[in-house]
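re: that chain from earlier
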Amino acid sequence: MRMWVYLVRRLILVLPVLIGTMTITFVLVSGVPTPQRFLSYCGPPPRHGGAAATAEYQDHCAKILGLNQPIYVQWGVYMFNTLTFQWGHAENDTAAVSALPFIQGQPVVTILGWLLPYTLELGTLALFLILVIALPLGRISAVHRNRPVDQAARVMSFSGYAIPSYLLGALGLIAAVLVLSNLHWYGCGGPFTEVYGSWPPANCIAGSVPSNLGYPPWLRFGVVSTPTGFPTIDAALHGQYAVALDTVVRILIPAFVVAYGAIAVLLRFVRNSMLEVMNLDFVRTARAQGVPESTVMKRHAGRNSLNVTVTVLGLTFAGFIGGFPIVEEVFGLDGVGRILAVSVLAPYDYGLIFGSTILFTWLVVIANIVVDVVYGWLDPRVRLG
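^ sequence. v structure.
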């Protein structure tokens, strides 16, 4: 079977998953009291006009959302709004607006578009750490079985299973502050900007004409950057290389906290896979023919561990994504995870909760498609099955 045929099949099979997850979300949203649902999709009710204006407002919103129609009509309106990205607006006087005042009154899709690049940068760095730590350490642990390096890898793996993200994040934040303070690494914005916060203060960005409340023209509200929306890339494009490096260093510890649990899982699977392959006949034959041990590990045992790597990454991606709200809130990183974490605090913002949940669902589904495609590329037997 050709690769493009396999890809089309996977895309077709993912449609029921998307419809199912959005339907579950619809059921949960339907349980929200009706006035609160109005706030998310139609904006706040009128402050003046009395009961007559409020009743007119509710009738108008009910017509828009199809709430005066049968449940299947409501589901259809909901699916249409979801697929056309009509996810409502940020409410006033909520915990989310208190944390990020610039989102007040903005469409949910616009807000998530502003903050998603932060989460993607954090996720990309975390994925990089997973691969560069778990793969070599798992192979070394298998080659040096029951030796000190293997025992240390086991301790690291078990601790990854046991330590929750919020505790590891808090410990990482405290340790980073202590280390940077002792090293007198103050950065451009103060002693703690290297480990906390998404962007340095405006006075950190040298050579820029102040605007937008003290920020340069390419950085709005201290969060939204142009032209790509990715803060590190935009800083480099505008010649602010110190700021770009500053942001990478700042998300290094949060990325490690996010990746630590996945590193623990992947390390164990790579080690066990390597041990299993090292006992197979073709590896013994290669050794008997005088093939150097390093070549045996790289070309024979190492390649066979790639399938396990891709499989485990696909299985752990949902949990990997689930750690973003906690880690971004602990480290003060402005991303989709943080907006979800503050949206569930009273007073709630149902539009942001709904939009963030749908976005994370789509990210997990897309990631699983990528994993399936990569797995089919590595092992042609998968495409033929």
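DSSP finds 16 helices and two strands in the chain.
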